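SAMPLE LOG
Freezer: B-3
Tube label: C17
Construct: single chain, 776 aa
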Amino acid sequence: MDFSSIPRALESLQRRQPPLDEETVLRPTRALVANPSADVFLSSIASLVSSTSSRWEPLAVGLYVATEALTQHGKALAASSSSSSTPDAAPSVYLEGPRVPSTRDEGTPLESVVPVLDTNQALVLCQTLHDVALRHLEHDEPRVRTLVAKAVGAYAKLTVELDDALPHNRQALHDRLVQSIRTHIQQGRDEQPDPQNDPHTNTPDDGDDDGDRSPKYSKSSTGALDDTTGWRALETNWQCLASLIRALGPAYVVQFGVPQTVLDDCQYSCIEHVNRHVRAAGISVLEQWLYAAAAGSPVQQALLTESDGVLRKTCRVVLKHGLADNWSQVRMAASVLCRVLFTTLQALQAPADDLYPVLLPRMCLNRFYLAQGVKLYSHETWKLVFVDSGVSLVAANLPAVCRYYVQMCDADNHVVREAACQAVAELAIRLGSDPNHHDELLPHMDLLLQALLMCFHDESWPVRDEACLACGLLCKAYPESCRPELGKLWERWTGQLTDQIWSVREDAAVALGDALEAYGADFLQELLALVDKLLPSARSQSAMTPTEHKARQNDAAAHTDSQLYSCGSLAPKLRKGGAGRIGCSSCDVNREKSPWEATDGCVYLIREVVVRCASPESPTPLADEILLPMLRELADVCRVQHFPQSDDLRTTLWRNLPGMAEALGKQRFKRLYLDVFQNLLFSSLDARSSSQLSQHAAGQCAEELADLVGRTIFRARLEDDQRDTLDRVLRERAAMPAGPADGAVFSPFGPPGLLDHIHKGTVHPGVAGMTRGTAP
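STRUCTURE (predicted):
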């Protein structure tokens, strides 16, 4: 079925196989296609929604067309009135999930397929939809239940616009909804209500005095249904109630109040229910309740603005769990509710001090969550809610923030642990560099550092990666507090410098560079000794031809019956390491490190040493007598070609050489260091056996070095064949399409300019976003 427009829905109904009943379905459908009068339209709709066919399609199309007709009538009514009786501030209820693009055929206006109804005809259609909603609220087909929810919102809103017509219908529908929700919650999916189970039993206290109380119900899932689809009609019942609240606005609170039993059921569905769709639907009900209360009288607003208001207390408990839910869908719904809550309180000039200890840590961490929708939305919420007060609020609630971060460093979900490490790094950057709040983090340093050391043993490499960076930033901001653990940190940093994953090697070098700034000359000598030890490792790599390497990669026996891995992790999903648990050094499956990877890690480490120590103004300056032999050895070892990954090693060199050259300075690099790499660079550009990545990196390096030295001077220092190669490379690069300009949209889901603040240096991208503009 196609519900993108009324003509397509009617057309697809006529094409269904086997054909539908002629008298009750096809004839009314053809009448609707023929652009009927209002009376024929109403009778055709009534025929479709009351069809005795066992098929669900006629009912769905009738509901869809009738809902569109009422929506059109409501818009016309609002346009003809100078002021609407019900403000339409609340956004639409997400019935198919967020970010669903509109597929309406804008070229076919509704007026061409739906007749204009007068008030009496609109009320007749409202009554028809009301009767259908009562009958099919628990229909077996979920698409029908969703259309029922949309129909309820349409006709309920219209009855309010029409001078509060048919109030008894709303009461009957609300009672039916409440009863159905309670029945579904008590029964679960395949179990009868437990007579010994009190619906209002409190949950155990978790230590936070925030009114965290949730009713307990039977929720067995022993049947064949899975936990990712809808839970009978419970999800759509909540969506239907949300649509009703949105339609009525403050009139809902006037007519029904905020029933405690419904609020308890909603809180249970948002927190305790095992199905993520039900949790998200329950959160959408709270969102609409907030809008309705905020638009009402002072008495209604008190449900939200007073610290003991029932809506405020329920939202606080629900958001505490929803913002930390294991499903991104629920986190997104909770993030929307969180923004609505804070912006509404700001609009009503109500304090939110009691919410900060519970919600602020979760709002902070979600700005680093892996799911882009949650991450971007949380960034925007922070900018809207905490314009200039973010740092102060985080500092004021620092015990709660640090406690939550440490807890999330031990979460079962590896992407949550990764986000927690990034959040700890942000504390080091923002509070460590703020003289007004620097000392406030000192009492929590031991706790944070131990949590990061635990993440250093994680089997998920992105977690280890972020923990590595965060430890370096903590050392840079609080060197004396981290000094007792420096031995353990050195062991972990140097271990990751030779890791199998290139980004882990690079970030280990960045962390060692941060520690260099923290601990000065003594640490520098240890780094130089480490470079001397690891840099020649590639020479001991076992010889292998490209043909042998390809045959090994394509050996089916080597990749059969092996451990499966989660996305973004070289370890089984949700496995954690650390004290008392299996760590990354004892994984069930782990590829051995290769010697060339130690040399590759040294390239990144040499970059960090040169960038941070090349300047005479550096606290630990290095003279050419030390740097020049080290870079000569680097160039010599990168000439190896007896194994296939040697191209990867040279690719790393070409990507990092321009940064080192810029740190050394134009005159110094041209005088002493250009000749060291010149022949190797152009042999890589001319080598037919080089990989495309190596060729591209070498070409970009040649262009950047030429721009640094001056293209004329650079070209004059080359041999004839090297000049021809340079000219070819520059022509090819000039013909490449230009990259996105600063501020361009980097993602179809992201707002323009979101990444403008990111520092384009050697700072890790995951940390760079925390340094400017996005932090608390």
